Amino acid sequence: MKIDHIAMYVYDLENMKQFFIDYFDAKPNDLYHNSKTGLQTYILSFSNGAKLELMNHPDMVNISQSIYKNGYIHISFSLGSKNAVDELTDRLRKQGYEVLSGPRITGDGYYESGIVGPEGNLLELTV
User: Fold this and answer.
1) Which of 13, 33, 107, 123 is the most buried (most CB within 10 A)?
2) CA distances from residue 37 to 6, 33, 60, 82 in whole angstroms, order as listed
């Protein structure tokens, strides 16, 4: 068994799609829009076969802005090298995204950085 994709609700669908295209080389499908429910989605594909579905629905509610909430916490992107982690972390920092941690070697041996992406979503960049 494998996980097919992960989905996340977002407020600004186009901005979030562009973020993942610009920084993670995502390839989006065409916008899906269900005119009955108002649901709109993009499925973004990454070079290793992973997929992320960005979703927007008119009935969404924002329960918590804290990154320390229960439930799914972050998406981790394996970039292939320490240099790639350093470069993308620096690029995102220079573009105004908050770097919460790193790049660093964690207590469990990962080389990673933690970035707060658009809409407060936590992204982990690792080797």
Assistant:
1) 123
2) 21, 9, 12, 44
